[in-house]
Amino acid sequence: MERITSFICYCIAVFLAWLGGMSYQDIAFLVGAAVGVATFLVNWYYRRKTYRLLKTMGISGEINAAINR
Question: Is residue 17 within a helix (H) or strand (E), and if so which, with residue range?
């Protein structure tokens, strides 16, 4: 258990040291990129969920395409 917590502490220390060497502009870029990727993943998840729901209901692909425009 001690080896695992030590490894996690070292990883956090390396991450914080790396983050400390960045400017505000670099941090803003990373946050913006992370938000963009998160938005893509959320949209993909819910479109896939909608497609599966419509597929189980027996609705055709044209209606699914019209809903997801």
Answer: helix 2-20
pLDDT of residue 54: 82
Which has the higher per-residue pLDDT, 1 or 67? 1
Element (H, E) at 62: helix 61-67
- At 22, is the secondary structure helix, strand, or coil? coil
At 17 the pLDDT is: 93
Distance of CA 13 to the CA centre of its chain: 23
Token code pair at residue 5: 């917590």
Residue 53 tokens, joined: 């729901």
Q: Residue ranges per domain, the chain?
A: 23-69
Q: What is the pLDDT of residues 34-58, one digit of tens each?
A: 999 999 999 999 988 988 888 888 8
Task: Name the amino acid, one letter, at 28.
Answer: A
